[in-house]
Amino acid sequence: MPTPDTTQGDLQVRPRTMPARSLLMLALFLAVPPSVNAEADQLLQLLQHNHCAQCNLNDADLVHADLRDVDLKEAQLERANLSQTRLDGADLSGSNLSFSSLQGASLRGADLRGSILYGTDLRNADLSGAQLDQDALGRAHWQGARGVALGSRSHAGLHNAGVDAAQAGRWPQAERLFSDAIEADPDEPLSWVARGLSREEQGKNDLAAQDLAHAGRLFAGQGDQVKSDQLLDASNRVYDIPYTPDVPSGNGVGSALLNGALSTAQALAPIALKALMPMIP
User: What is the pTM of this model?
Assistant: First the structure.
């Protein structure tokens, strides 16, 4: 049907019609919830202006993004994908990074004070010079992270990571982790026992004997004389067990030394339950 003309005096005016493409774009825009538009605007603000304090960027995908010196103070970043992102010097203080992925990210000098890192994946990230609260990484995944600030990892987390390494036969790594755990809490005898066993598996007899003897003294101080006597005896018998470096998983010294009140299973077991979501390899 022809489009009717309208007359304004002697001038005939034909009503304008909107192109089909424009109508489609308008319909799509109106169909998007306002909250989604707002999140898109905030993401655009972040990428264009390098600041978005208190922004809601939950579930954002920012893989490999260059966000150096960005201002994300008190931002909501739950479940965000920030893997391999450059966040050197970023202000992430007070932000919520629960269950977000920062795997392999560079966070050199970043401010993470007051941030929530529950279940956050920081594996293989660079945290050199990053500012973190005490025990901030206690519920985060930080295996392989570099430059981790002293005190930011909990004793339980360090000890349990050492247990994982020991169970996999990675004795040098286990020794380092147990050493860090001891530094975090020098009064926990199980970490001394575990490091002693890790050192014995590497043929470090003198150091292993010292660790086991010290663990025995700690147990004595706690009133557990049975374990104390067992460990003091084990420290003297370290030299009686031959070191066999050709055996990949160690020479089984733990079961040979600890078979009384304190078993190897107890000595090389997590000391706290891991309250974290399982990670996908």
Answer: 0.57
